[in-house]
Amino acid sequence: MTETIRLTAAQAMMRWLSVQMTEDGERFIEGVWAIFGHGNVAGIGEALHGIGDALPTWRGQNEQTMAHAAIAYAKAKQRRRAMAVTSSIGPGALNMVTAAALAHVNRLPILLIPGDVFANRRPDPVLQQVEDFDDGTVSANDCFRPVSRYYDRITRPEHLLTALPRAISVMTDPQNAGPVVLAFCQDVQAEMFDYPADFFEPRTWRIRRPEPDMREVADVAALIAQASRPVIVSGGGVLYSQAEDALANFVERHNIPFVETQSGKGGLAADHSLNFGSPGVTGSDCANEICRAADLVIGVGTRFQDFTTGSWSLFQNAGRRLVSVNLHPYDASKHLAVPLVSDARVALEKLSDALGDLRFDAHDPAAKEAWLSEVKRVTDAPLGGGNQLPTDAQVIGAVQRTAGENTVVMCAAGTMPGALQVLWQSARGGYHMEYGFSCMGYELAGAMGIKIACPQKEVVCFVGDGSYMMANSELATAVMRRIPFTVVLTDNRGYGCINRLQIECGGAEFNNMYKDSNVETQPEINFVSHARSMGAHAVKVADLAALEAEIAAARGRDVPTVVLIDTDAVPGTGAGGHWWDVAVPQTGGPERLEEARRRYDASAALQRTFN
């Protein structure tokens, strides 16, 4: 007779999650972020309390930002570990939909456990229940369906026997990693069931390394051998595959220059001789020149997002071909690429063996030195002094001068992601950017998640006043848990990045900067007092020298440090860059709009797909 254990469904879920292990002998699900409400407090809340430190509970301030912290944790752990997040039904659950989309776009694992309505339907409609007049099975949690890799609704206790293994299988699958949603009916959470005892035996989950089809290796090797000016576009898949050394060996053996996407930046250090920086819209001059001339573009672990490709106007060599090394056939076959479906590390090793000692000499090493001189020019502190506000590039320069091999810079939205990609000279593993979804509000919660994942690292969070205003409450969580990181808060008094885009697209300055908004009074927000009220150490600095000093001083604290500095909203990065396809109205505007449309049409004519 099979031995069983009588547990509620919520108790069974938490016990099972607590014994799902990595190959390193650690829990795959490090802990559960939780805000309790009706729909999860009585069932899941009791189960989390009962399991204690075997599956720690983390309390946050907002369901979306808790999930952001969990996603940042998984990204910093290179998808080797993850976290779960639970909420009540209704608004608590829907607050997590944005985070689910962020994880989906960035291919990052997270387990979301929103409470759901009553499976037995006796008390319907319950508080916060969304009623569909035509479908009795619908709840608010159906909004997760398009942004989940795996979605399930737990309407019977025994559903866990199949749903939980499938959930972790998806999260640990390098091809399909992403958000999993288990909508958990609140009455079912509290129902008991006799679960098989062996269901709770510890299980080790391995991250697979899919081998390529050797015919595809041969096809790609032949294309590389026929090329004259190849370039590698290194994406986030290089980091998730832990293929950094394989990439270094490959480019050094064959003398092929490489460029890094937002997700791939920091895979190898910026000072690697063959690292030409970032391509595309927020690309370096030397990287974009190599990409324009390339006759073979080899993507490794990249989705070829529009910023990377300059909205597919960057690669201008008439005879160019595209190769895509990726785990998922969907990504590997984009834009008629020659696919190599494989783990990145394995693919690079096998390709290198196939190429033997083939080497290329088409790129100009001096172009990188010229670019670095330009970076220094725009990031150096301004001469003279006076009342001149620093640019964002100069703020980056100040942080760069204080950074070490242990520093990780992070950001998500606004001006700084593009400025950091093009200007920041990253140490290996020193860059964390959420730019697949570019979600304002990720920054502070994400910085906390990185620090939880990598307590030995110095985490520096760049955030503008706009993103800070959207989501800052997890600063209090970091204070309560004594999780230190440094926030460089740049105040340009509005949405400066989008204001510049608005101007570039021929529009009037409208509704982005406070001065151009329909308000009776211009706000005077005391960010320092606000951050201090949540327990952070906060200070406003008058210049870049003081900023550098405060960043150094923050290293001795056990709570977050917020350093506020006013910046000039007008200048962009001042260096690098490329066209980005943002559609401009064809008619109906003043002369500046017509001129913007002429520029748009000229650039759009360069857009090409591969063939």
Can you put this structure into words, describing what you see?
There is one protein chain. With 611 residues, this protein is an alpha/beta fold. The strands form five sheets. The protein has a six-stranded parallel beta sheet with strand order 4-3-5-6-8-7, sandwiched between helices. Strands 17-16-18-19-21-20 form a six-stranded parallel beta sheet, sandwiched between helices. Strand 3, helix 2 and strand 4 form a beta-alpha-beta unit. The chain is globular and about 75 Å long. The model has no long low-confidence stretch (mean pLDDT 95).
Overall form? globular
How many independent structural domains?
3
* Share of helix, binned: 25-40%
Rg from alpha-carbon coordinates: 25 Å
Q: What do the pLDDT scores average to?
A: 95
Oligomer: single chain
| CATH fold-type name of the largest domain | Rossmann fold
Percent of sequence in beta strands: 15-25%
- Give, in spatial order, the strands making up the sheet with the most strands: 4-3-5-6-8-7
**For the report, how would you describe the main beta sheet?**
6 strands, parallel
Structural class: alpha/beta
CATH superfamily of the largest domain: Thiamin diphosphate (ThDP)-binding fold, Pyr/PP domains
Q: Alpha-carbon distance between the termini?
A: 63 Å
Number of strands: 21
Unreliable residue stretches: none
The CATH architecture of the largest domain can be given as 3-Layer(aba) Sandwich
Number of helices: 24
